[in-house]
Amino acid sequence: MSLTHPEILSEKRNLLAQCLKKAAVSKNGAVRKVLLAGAGVAALAFGVPQAAFAQADLPKTIPEGLKLEAAQALPITPFYTEAPSADAPTWPGGLIRAEKVTDYAIPAGMTAWRILYHSLDAERHDVVTSGFVLLPAGPAPAGGWPVVAWAHGTSGVAQPCAPSLMKDLYYGDEGLFEFPKAGLAVVATDYHGQGTPGAHQYMNKLAQGYDVIYSVAAAHAALPGVLSKQWVADGHSQGGMASWSVGEMEQQMKNPDYLGTVSVSGTVDMLDFIAPTPEEVGAPFYFPMVAYGLKARYPDFDVHSILTKDGYEHYPLIATKGCWFTGYAAYLGKTSAQIMKPNWTKVPAVQAMLKEDIMGDKPVKGPLMVLTGGGDVSVPPGGVKKTAQKACKNGIKLFFHLYPGLDHDPTMINSTQDQIAWIKDRFAGKPFEQNCGGF
């Protein structure tokens, strides 16, 4: 699978390919963005992977992490920071500006646009959010390209960590390009505070859900007649919670053009994600990002109330500059106990977040597909399955599938063709088959 033009091949892939060590189903708990370039996406048909993916060492130092991120970074231009013009719309979904992009490493024939639009935060305050639109090759069909509203997984919490500010769009080599190849347009929010000024309300299902929903309206305004009115939400990890949240929100909004949601390895059980059992391993380097998200959501919250001295040591870097690779390297070897203070989950702001992020209780509009990997040690599959079972008991009809042995990112990559097939069935109006009671 050719993902990039030769002249802009990702430095991170070249570096990581040199230190290739082990096969794709990892048990180290923090595999991300390090799949060897050139591996194909296997069509699983809900079975065992038909192709092996290779993984390599992650950065061991902060400078290494920053170097990998710099290799993909694009500058934060006035597109992201200039105030809207006086005549720009101000309602949620209102398009502020759009521009065609030529500096992304995307497959030949595809075209990309940046968008800047109004959205809402968790308290329904106006925020400005950025994102991108990725179009398939060739002319749009009658009625426009079917739309997948994409919600990305954790990229970081700082402004430079927006996927639209990365040459590979962050998920380019993790299945994202497969959607346009299959004739589906991608409308991808960055989430506000990434790309745009302001604080990113990390791991808040309301804030991220609004950003996804209103990106679709903005994309239609940017590209009139190019995109179908009908759309499906899809997301991985942090985005898996966001996309499920979209289904909940659409139950209230009752948008007839919304057709359903795919949630892949979603953080739909937040307590299981931030305080996993020892057997589930977990990834402690996410915790300072969670602290940042709490501060963004609850301004009176003091991050020192949950972060130890070691936990806070690199917090300013993560809050302002470093993204996923840097966060991983900064806390490499640190345990949850070293980063988080005892009883930190009892802090009022944490309790408020856990309550606000509850999934599986509220009805959703349209079909829901929930996928997870049996070897996922970043977002434990037990929590995902438990939430899906709870949803079924609450009358939410969904399709659930667990891919045996797959870790966090390999689940996204290896399930992409299954996602696409399911999504195309929604656009084709085929009946939805749920399997509640069967897992």
TrEMBL record:
<dbReference type="GO" id="GO:0016042">
    <property type="term" value="P:lipid catabolic process"/>
</dbReference>
<dbReference type="Pfam" id="PF03583">
    <property type="entry name" value="LIP"/>
</dbReference>
<protein>
    <recommendedName>
        <fullName>Lipase</fullName>
    </recommendedName>
</protein>
<dbReference type="InterPro" id="IPR005152">
    <property type="entry name" value="Lipase_secreted"/>
</dbReference>
<dbReference type="GO" id="GO:0004806">
    <property type="term" value="F:triacylglycerol lipase activity"/>
</dbReference>
<dbReference type="InterPro" id="IPR029058">
    <property type="entry name" value="AB_hydrolase_fold"/>
</dbReference>
